[in-house]
Amino acid sequence: MAAKQSLSFALEPRASVTLDDYVVDCAWSPDGTQLVVAGGEGKVALLGAGPAGMSVEIVGEHLLGTLAVAWQPHGRRFASAGQDGAVVIRDAENGREIARFKPGMGAAQALAFAPNGELLAVAAGKVVSLWTPAGEKVHAFAPASSTAVALAFDKPGIDIGVALNGEIAVHRIENSRYETRRYKWPAPSLTVNFSGNGRFLASGMADGTLHFWNRSTGKDSQMRGYDGKVQLVGWSDNSRYLATSAGNDVVLWDFSGRGPEGTRPVVLSGHTDRVDCIAWQPGGEHLVSGGRDWRLALWRPAKAREAIDVQMADSDISALRWSPDGKRVAVGEKHGRLTVFELVAR
Amino acid sequence: MSVIPSRVPVTVLTGFLGSGKTTLLNRILSEKHGKRIAVIENEFGEVGVDSELVIGAEEELFETNNGCICCTVRGDLIRILGQLMKRRDRFDYILIETTGMADPGPVAQTFFLDDELKTQFALDAIVTMVDAKHFEQHVDELNEPAEQVAFADLVLLNKTDLVDEAALARIESRIRGINGTAKIHRTKNADVPIDKVLNVGAFDLNRALQVDEAFLEPEYPFEWGGVYSLTPGDYLLKAAGEHDHAAHDHGAHDHGHEHHDHEHEHGGHSHKHEDLELVVLPVPEATPTALKDALERAVRGFAEPATVVNCHGTLAATAAHYAVDISHAGADFTLSVKQPGAYALFFEHHPLEFGLHLVGQRPAAERKFASHHHEDDISSIGISDPRPLDPAKLNQWLDYLLKTRGQDIFRMKGVLNVKGEDRRQVFHGVHMMFDAQPERLWGAAPRMNNLVFIGRGLDRAEFEAGFESAVAK
User: Fold this and answer.
1) Residues ≥6 apart with Cβ < 8 Å to B190
2) Closest to A111 measured CA to CA, from A51, A195, A52, A38
């Protein structure tokens, strides 16, 4: 794809490490000095991402695959979950296990820490449960009608959304009281995404639709025209754009003004194969995308429809995460490489 | 980047509870084959499959197209298989075990409908395990056993040691009636060579479609024929089992397991009368050719009214159609031969079902004919015809068929002789999902259309008329 060099930002590789596993996902420590990596074959790796280069320590393993990792906001702990059904909470100082539990029948599919770092939500099979960072059970919601595949807290940390087959359940947690609201659509929901401004709940669906609900009116809007399952959905930090992808293009819905209903989306094209990950910059307006064409693309949709920088990876890009300060991006690959890029002005 | 990894084969294992699926899985996993096999199990934690590579799944159905059962897929499989492929050392093989009551349709459709899975996995075969001991009971009481058989590429008739030969023949004939093309293997304790079950390539269009030749023959009203060389005299034609005259004469009932009559087995007091139709024909010689040449006469013979022969009655060895009463075990009849020569016998059902045989005589040649029993609502229709097809009309017919009968057609496959094409055109489908492509050149081989449809409530006349409409004029 043609990169437009006139705009002033680019990504530069800073440090790289090769893990003996497929990078499924990764999570930054709040101070941006460490990363925890989920391996497709099951390894959990703790990386030092300091200025001196990268260190690697394999701290644990989930048999048949690690499915999710999450770092405690403001904290020194991280959690991993896997196909073996286990959730493990570890100490970031030394990687040592603090707690280990099996929250339900079947694989532990998704993890989410509350924004204040005091609660860990876990989806395992049909059960969503809440735990303290020390691994004590706080609450388990009644089993859902299907496997919970994704979890997310809203920004205030009061609501937790659960992607299910046929609905998104939103559990409200207030003073240890629990209430559930259901947003229904008859297809498997694959993602759950609260907008930062609290106004919308979005979800990508297996039937090739994107839905978003206005949270104050409950009105459901459906966006169609995708080639396949809408697996990637992400709100920009300022809640203006909702980035989505179901194929080679990144499709942006603009929520400024009267919102995206009835409008045509902005299509960010350039990838020549399926996009497998997207990530919005915290505190900024950059978006990165990557996938099976090995390309890492940097976009600034408010300014340009073309990628402002493109970098090549060594294999399929399988994970993209911005550091909490929005200055670096961790890029994980199918063949085990993890590279930290820095966003630089040119 | 240019290396395209080969697709990982997937075998779907269906079968009723207790049919031996777990035993088979454990056998496959414990054998030293050097393959990394992952098992996706649907009967969660219920049974111990002896491997670490077992993933529990809960059947999650969803319709990709509103309200269309043909577009129903398994969301859980899409998710789990996607996660399993996130490894550098990939699995060599995937086995998916469905629950006893599952409809295999959505599992197969998932591999046709999901773009991601399509590129990474190749459906190898649907294997259905049948419990020989309980199949007949289950198939009469429930829909699922017949559906599972209908979807199968391979049927493992298991627990054969628990029933006798007559029952096995009966069950095989019933399975054949439902699914005319599946391979049937008899097994004890699920013991079957692994290469018979894995890498079968049933969905591989590049491999010649293997359709049971006998199935593609016209429908015959008989399942077995044999020729004998006989000198004049009386021959005993006898069903298996001891005929207990005393009991019979006093109206009591023999509960012997040789009985084909279910009413007996259940101890009822009605005495159901059961006939087996047969045709006797003098033929020029006792050879396979003579047997083949006699087929048309045999069909005509079956069309004539039958003479009913009671137990101990006599059949004349002249061209005739009889219905012999085989209500009791060990029923016997006399075949009276006046002229020395060759005689052909054609039986409505396979003689093994009743152990019916000509005592002391072996046929010089014999042949089985595909069963066309329609005791089940689900059946197979085969069409075999050499005439070239018009590609546009063929598409029209297949489109119409998929639209109107897609829900009823479980499986279809075929090799087509399309006008103007040098290559065989092959196709297969599951419900409305349909794949077709040109295959190898006809070359010197005789051009022939062979099509098979397996489904519920299929009407042969409708399919034949449809085929006729596609023949190039």
Assistant:
1) B20, B21, B23, B24, B27, B129, B156, B158
2) A38
Closest CA to A320 of A245, A261, A215: A245
For residues B106 and B134, the answer to whether their CB atoms sit within 8 Å is no
Q: Classify residue A177 as exposed, middle or buried by CB count within 10 Å of its CB (0-12, 13-18, 19+).
A: exposed
CB atoms within 10 A of CB B245: 12
Chain B residue with the nearest C-alpha to that of A335:
B88
Q: Where are the alpha helices (DSSP H) in B242-308?
A: 245-249, 262-265, 288-293, 295-303
Alpha carbon distances (Å) from A99 to A74, A87, A134, B433? 19, 8, 6, 48
Contact B373, B173 (CB under 8 A): yes
Least CB–CB distance from B62: residue in A106, A165, A335? A165
The closest alpha carbon to B116, from A208, A12, A67, A144, belongs to: A208
DSSP H or E segment with residue B176: helix B165-178
CA-derived radius of gyration, chain B: 25
pLDDT tens-digit series, residues A170-187: 999 988 889 999 999 999
Q: Does B78 touch chain A (CB under 8 A)?
A: yes
| Mutation site, B83, B89, B113, interface A, largest A CB count within 10 A | B83
Nearest to A193 by CA among A179, A213, A172, A216: A213
CA distance A126 to chain B (A): 10
Say whether A105 and B64 touch across the interface (CB within 8 A).
Answer: no
B36 touching A (Cβ < 8 Å): no
pLDDT tens across A277-332, in order?
999 999 999 999 999 999 999 999 999 999 999 999 999 999 999 999 999 999 99
CA distance B51 to B29: 7
CA distances from A156 to A171, A175, A194, B326 (A): 13, 14, 11, 81
Q: Give, in degrees to the nearest 5, the angle at Cα A322 between B78 and B87.
A: 35
Q: What is the Cα Rg of chain A in Å?
A: 19
Q: Are B333 and B312 in contact (CB under 8 A)?
A: yes
Judged by phi (left if over 0) then psi (alpha if -120 to 50, else beta), residue B44 lies in: beta
Per-residue pLDDT of chain B (473 residues; tens, 9 = 90+): 445 568 999 999 999 888 898 889 888 888 877 888 888 987 554 456 656 677 777 788 887 765 566 778 888 899 999 998 888 777 899 999 988 888 888 898 899 888 889 889 999 999 999 999 999 998 888 888 999 999 999 999 999 999 999 999 999 989 988 988 889 999 999 999 999 999 988 887 665 455 555 556 667 888 899 999 999 999 999 888 765 444 333 333 333 333 333 333 333 333 445 788 999 999 999 999 999 999 889 988 988 899 999 888 999 988 899 999 888 878 899 999 999 999 999 998 888 777 888 988 999 999 888 655 556 788 888 888 999 999 999 999 988 888 888 888 988 888 899 999 999 888 888 887 878 888 888 988 889 898 889 998 888 889 999 999 999 98
Asked if A143 contacts A129 with a C-beta cutoff of 8 angstroms, the reply is: no
**Sequence-separated (6 or more) residues with CB below 8 Å from residue A29:** A35, A36, A71, A76, A78, A92
Question: Cα(A76)–Cα(A90) distance, rounded to whole angstroms?
Answer: 9
Residue B115 contacts A, CB cutoff 8 Å = yes
User: In B162-198, which positions are buried (b, 16+ CB within 10 angstroms) versus exposed (e)?
Assistant: ebeebbbbbbbbbbbbbbbbbbbbbbeebebebeebb
Do the Cβ atoms of B396 and B402 come closer than 8 Å? no
The verdict on ipTM greater than 0.90 is no
The verdict on B283 touching A (C-beta cutoff 8 Å) is no
CB A3 within 8 A of CB A308: yes
Does the model's pTM come out above 0.80? no
